[in-house]
Write a structure and sequence with these properties.
With 145 residues, the chain is an all-alpha fold. The protein has five helices and no strands. Helix 2 (30-63) packs antiparallel against helix 3. It is elongated, with a radius of gyration of 16 Å.
Length: 145
């Protein structure tokens, strides 16, 4: 197992929750949509925090790169948090059109973001940390989060 495998798997988990929230809201099932959206928001925040507080600092320490790919990912996390806040408002107001528009934007951003992480950053992290004691500790901490 690679260091970043738990994060890769969490991407898939969040994608499923996102689809559930989107389907429920698109079908006017606001109770289920609200529940799924809350779970999505919580899971994405957990994911972002795991990366920002565990993976990214370890990678930056190991490589000395502090304004490279991790900074780009942090910026995209901020954009996704902003979209999630907008979507929360649309769920609260039961505005299906506004929710759909924000969800479409978030989906595109998430897909692009995840591809960059999975194909570029995660392999870089695995290479930089994979055989170190820090890497072993990181796997345990990521699995626990």
């Amino acid at each position: 197992m690679s260091i970043t495998d738990p994060l890769f798997q969490h991407h898939k988990h969040c994608d499923k929750i996102f689809a559930d929230a989107e389907d429920a809201c698109a079908n006017g099932d606001w109770a289920a949509g609200e529940q799924a959206f809350k779970l999505l928001r919580d899971q994405l925040e957990t994911h972002f925090t795991s990366e920002e507080e565990l993976l990214f600092p370890a990678f930056e320490e190991a490589t000395g790169m502090t304004s490279g790919p991790t900074e780009v990912m942090r910026g995209e996390h901020r954009q996704m948090r902003d979209l999630l806040a907008q979507m929360q408002d649309t769920v609260a107001s039961r505005d299906g059109d506004a929710f759909g528009g924000a969800a479409e934007t978030l989906l595109i951003l998430m897909q692009q973001h995840n591809m960059k992480e999975e194909n570029i950053l995660y392999p870089m992290c695995d290479n930089a940390l994979g055989t170190s004691d820090v890497g072993a500790s990181l796997v345990e901490r990521l699995n626990a989060s």
